[in-house]
Amino acid sequence: MHELSMVMRLANTAEETAKQNDMKKVETITVGVGEMSTAIGEYLRKYFNQVKGKYERINEAALLLHDEKGEGLCNKCGTSFLLTENEGVCPVCGERDFKITKGKSITVLSIEGE
Ligand SMILES: [Zn+2]
Q: Is residue 93 in some structural domain?
């Protein structure tokens, strides 16, 4: 279950960010979930609820999940394109040779609290 390690990293980042911003209680953590990350939102929430109690500042926070589209950069002609919409084929030259530039991971976008 790779979602668990993702959630641990996420929780550490959020806790650390709260600390740096002198935030005592975090209420919501907005997380970008990349389409290509293969993470399942339901599991992220479930694991987050299991681990958050170990943290001082995010122990009562809720996760807000925000879907991020996968984006690729064609290795042949350099075009950026949305992966799912184009089924992984460059719309300009028709190559399937690309580098994923967006939507590969899950990231903390913002945290809110006091
Ligand atoms: Zn191309």
A: no
